[in-house]
């Protein structure tokens, strides 16, 4: 969908204004950063009263080529809202309108009241309110019920976004019923910390029809369509690019050789040991480079990743883990050998009842190694080459990373804990066959490998 310059100029004069409200630690910031996308344009914080995040509403301005597109406002919270609503009802026997509550907040000595007044003023100016609610909270908590009821009465379209819905202690079903009983139908289950592409689409689909600027509703909705398509294109590009990054890594590793020539027999063990360490460094250099590329494609960096992750056996390892340790390689070796045997069994119609596959898996489990040695020149030269087990392990690690990243919110306060999933690759899949073939044919066309990797990432 095109969004021409004339429309961009008009939108710049009347940008979309979205106000995010909710309590501290309910996920406001994560939701905001999900809305803000680099493909949309430049995002920057702008302050009216100085860069004090604890005291001010923070507008996030989204612009491109100097033209504003949208503002997303992070509000300081509703610390005193329930108290002031209760006081007003006790005094006047009814709930206040937003104008009445703003008026009653004037001159209040407490800082929390001034923050509440500013938040209410911003709500009035906005085209949409998104209330972020922690779905693990008690659905009978009167504070939250009063807030939803009040926001519903403010005259600005309201979306209640339930966060943390993928946690084991979520009460999302109870909340869904409670919110609907209050007369609010615009409810989304959007976990900003473990979001999926489908979740994001639901969020944007919910926003589009609610934008309430009567004079510019069509313009705003056209831009929301444009915004959604940009995000989809960016997501597709990240996944396709990642599949290409992993493909290139596997090809490069499969073709990599580290040679050592022996000048004196007396130094043979020492020189071979040095070549072995050089082989490890060279492989890990390629892995780390690709690791960084994949992180970058999804908007993350090494700083966003935990410095330790679970080993296959449950131990602790560094970020890139010990790809040369037997405990890390044995499952990959078992899968590689079992997969190769499955291919052979298929040729014989599986009349062997899978016994060779079981034997091969067991053999691979106990004989795993990261490299194989080739001797040349009558033993005067030795070459280190990666094994199928090493290729399978690297593929599993990279796919585990890609699957984790594609389901992470941009502002998740928790570091990315990349855990190696040894079962991420089905040993009977075409992907395994493509990986095993890499060590056989130096000039093999690996485009089908990329297709298989992309299918796995999208699964």
Describe the fold and architecture.
- By secondary structure, the protein is of the alpha/beta class.
- The protein folds into 2 domains: 5-212, Rossmann fold, CATH 3.40.50; 237-458, no CATH class.
- The chain is built from 15 helices and 12 strands.
- A hairpin with a 4-residue loop joins strand 11 and strand 12 (381-386).
- Mean pLDDT is 78; it is low at 48-54, 308-320 and 342-367.
Notable characteristics:
single chain; 459 residues; alpha/beta; Rossmann fold; 2 domains; seven-stranded mixed sheet; three-stranded antiparallel sheet; 15 helices; 12 strands; 49% helix; elongated
SSE blueprint and pairings:
Layout: H1 5-13, E1 16-22, H2 28-35, E2 42-45, E3 58-64, E4 67-74, H3 81-92, H4 98-105, H5 111-125, E5 128-134, H6 142-152, E6 158-163, H7 172-181, E7 187-189, H8 197-207, H9 217-254, E8 258-261, H10 268-297, E9 308-310, E10 316-318, H11 326-347, H12 355-366, E11 371-376, E12 381-386, H13 388-405, H14 430-438, H15 447-458
Parallel strand pairs: 1-4, 1-5, 5-6, 6-7
Antiparallel strand pairs: 2-3, 3-4, 8-12, 9-10, 11-12
In short:
The chain is of the alpha/beta class.
Q: How much helical structure, as a percent, in the residues?
A: 40-55%
Q: Specify the structural class.
A: alpha/beta
Biggest beta-sheet profile: 7 strands, mixed
What's the end-to-end separation, in Å?
A: 27 Å
Q: Biggest sheet: strands side by side, in what order?
A: 2-3-4-1-5-6-7
Q: Which strand-content bin applies to the residues? A: 5-15%
What is the radius of gyration computed over CA atoms, rounded to a whole number of angstroms?
Answer: 28 Å
Count, helices: 15
Total domains:
2
Q: Which residues form runs of ≥5 with pLDDT under 50?
A: 48-54, 308-320, 342-367
> What string gives the helices and strands in order?
HEHEEEHHHEHEHEHHEHEEHHEEHHH
Mean pLDDT score, rounded?
Answer: 78
Q: Indicate the overall shape.
A: elongated
Strand tally: 12
